[in-house]
Amino acid sequence: MDLGIKGKHAIVCASSRGLGRACAQALAEAGVNLVINGLDEQRLIAVAKDIEESTGVKVIPVAADVSTEAGQQALLAACPEPDILVNNNAGPPLKDFRQLNKEAMVEGLNMNMLTPISLIQRVLDPMAQKGFGRIVNITSMTVKMPVAGLDLSSGARAGLTAFLAGIARTVADKNVTINNILPGYFATDRLEGVFNAGMARTGHDRDTVAAELAGKIPAHRFGVPDEFGNTCAFLCSQYAGYITGQNILLDGGLNPSAF
Question: How far apart are CA 41 and CA 32, in angstroms?
């Protein structure tokens, strides 16, 4: 399917690995030129080269911490008026809320709520003026299905969701959409942290912990990053202009809600 976005320009935050990398790859396969981002410069350069060689699009690597003002400025210097913005960032580690001090809470809010809002503030009006814009925020299934120990991540991402819900409706008539994708358990590096926590809690080996977790998912497997990336690309396509302000849950059926 031709997604109708060939030649567009996208910023994909935290895209040197995992779900962000999958989103970047899927957009590149649709013909979108990219600015990709990560902290490890050498890894980022290698990813940029790989995407360019496999798709033929232009890929600019920007090694920076997107949570900082300098990092955001660097991304926007590389692509001042993106057609597509994919917000993504690492989240706070698993921790009992009693152990969170104010500094940790402020950092978590900055990473998963304030940073994406800041980038959206800068790109939204130019998108509206051009009559095309797609903003996708990678949040988490914990927005709908809280997990104890990820309370800070859940709260920050839920705050982002609520903050943008009204804003999304103000630009829908300009062909600008704002949506969120809520991943469940995907086979990425981040899932290893979940396994490690499970091993520490139960004393079981990795394979046992992984099998027990997969068994709780109705699909009986973990998500494949390509599945996530292609969902992101569709939300950025010409066909998704009537989808806005939505939370797309990709969790293999784990959340037992009807809505």
Answer: 22
